[in-house]
Amino acid sequence: MRAEILSCGTELLLGHITDTNATYLAQSLAAQGIDLYNVSQVGDNQGRVVELLRQAWQRADLIIMTGGLGPTEDDLTRESISELMGEKMTVDPQLEAQLRARFAHIGTMPERNIKQATLIPSAESIPNPVGSAPGWWVEKEGHILVAMPGVPREMYRMWEEEIVPRLAKYTGGLIFTRLLRVYGLGESTVEEILTPLLPSTNPTIATYAKIDAVDVRITAKAERTEDALQLVAEMEEKARDLLGDHVFGIEGDTLASVIGKALQARQQTLGVMESLTGGMLASTITDFQSSSKHFIGGIVTYSTDLKVQMGVPQETVDRYGVVSEETARAMAHAVRERLGTDFGIGVTGVAGPGKQDDKPVGTVHIAIEGPEGIITGKGPGWRGGRADNKRHAVLTALNLLRRYLEGTITPE
């Protein structure tokens, strides 16, 4: 099967966003043994979109489109497919009802959204439970054309849950995938560690850098479900042996959800005192839906004076500086005492853009105090922008707590 990707949106051509969707799809297609021959980007112009679609129709069996499924005038993917096929778009009553029901809780649906409920005779809709725009699956004359939203989280979900299973019958057998989530290593390092496994063609193994982790995708193809599962299980065991405790979960897991489940299983609680992260640590912890069962609260001590008011000894700050391991330790102890929690996390550092107390941007000190003692760590040495430094500090703190809970770090 020969594939082609067409990414739609003038914002791509202007450089306002990066086409991460195409990269993701290319990697996924390779894992499924589908040959990708061309990747194109096109602006919001129906004539140019149709021209590229006609070219793709001549040379590809599978055409994958992303973007252009919104409700506005410049969202022209449906119209372009309609013109390519020579078929008229009409409103599908069931799709319209679903769309109006989606908008019901926030008010009346704008009538321009009705275009998201249209189909052509050759198309069937692809469910999109995380967005308002259904996808299109078109089969005609031996070709398959798939249109998905450009919003990455919507596209990823639609591709994994809806499209990949449908493609299995065209690629020869059942496809099963397991995703391992890795933190504490860069993508290139993960790939290097997995080098002995990379030559495998069934199952395949590939790495993907995400904002909160590196994902390792293991994909197997077989005629029977149990055979695919066995192939993936064998490869997963080898990958876990190589990556060790850097693997923190599987698909759907986050560091926040992993530590949340662990704390709840132990019936233990958590509090945080954070400085450079400005509340982001507490916010990330509460992204886990049942966090109220283990997270008591957080204190954002952005100023030195507030740190002291909340229990950090003045002499510690005076002697070691506000950005120091000793201050992080004092913060972890103070919040644990003040909130009465089993665990306390203290985070201090320099987000940027300038130095603080002669400490370079990206310096991060983390301490976690618990019933068994205290552990400390530093940020990953990241020297990015302010937002990146804060995000990496949060993830590093959560990962340190995970390792504490799993017993892979011995507390003092």
TrEMBL record:
Q: Which domain of life is it from?
A: Bacteria
According to its UniProt record, what is one Pfam family this protein matches?
A: MoCF_biosynth
Domain named MoaB/Mog: which ranges? 4-170
**UniProt cross-references to SUPFAM superfamilies, sorted A to Z:** CinA-like (SSF142433), Molybdenum cofactor biosynthesis proteins (SSF53218)
Which InterPro entries does the record cross-reference, listed alphabetically?
A: CinA, CinA-like_C, CinA_C, CinA_KH, Competence-induced_CinA, MoaB/Mog-like_dom_sf, MoaB/Mog_dom
Read off the CDD domains from this record: cinA
Q: Which family does it belong to?
A: Belongs to the CinA family.
Q: What is this protein called?
A: CinA-like protein
Give the source species.
Answer: Dictyobacter halimunensis
Show the taxonomic lineage.
Answer: Bacteria, Bacillati, Chloroflexota, Ktedonobacteria, Ktedonobacterales
**What gene name is given for the protein in this entry?**
cinA
